[in-house]
From TrEMBL:
<protein>
    <submittedName>
        <fullName>SnoaL-like domain-containing protein</fullName>
    </submittedName>
</protein>
<dbReference type="Pfam" id="PF12680">
    <property type="entry name" value="SnoaL_2"/>
</dbReference>
<feature type="domain" description="SnoaL-like">
    <location>
        <begin position="9"/>
        <end position="110"/>
    </location>
</feature>
<dbReference type="InterPro" id="IPR032710">
    <property type="entry name" value="NTF2-like_dom_sf"/>
</dbReference>
<dbReference type="InterPro" id="IPR037401">
    <property type="entry name" value="SnoaL-like"/>
</dbReference>
Amino acid sequence: MADTSTIIAQAYAAFNRRDIDAALALMTHDVSWPRASEGGKVIGKEAIRAYWTRQWSEFDPHVDPLDLSPQESGRIHVRVHQLVKNLQGDLLADGVVVHVFTIAEGLIVAMDLEDEADPNAGPSAAFAHRS
């Protein structure tokens, strides 16, 4: 079984390659995931597949993990460089965000946005500018 840092690195690499199947293989069937570009959350692999497909039809996000910080709660905070462009290549956001992962038995159970006060709110600031 891969260690936590390897699982997280593989998930980001798969996302950046747009390899949905490889990313979903690292997650539980009932994974919880934020819809950063739309607001709210989705539950389950097929819901993530649908969400990412919509997101990538409008935005070109790229995320690189900078460092991982395991928390006493068992969750892992990942400081991430996030670059978001529209499909024409215009820069919409370039900054650092924190993703919070829950991993159990070698699979991602949940990912949350650290600065998300209300998980039912609209899109995160990086996706607020529509193309």
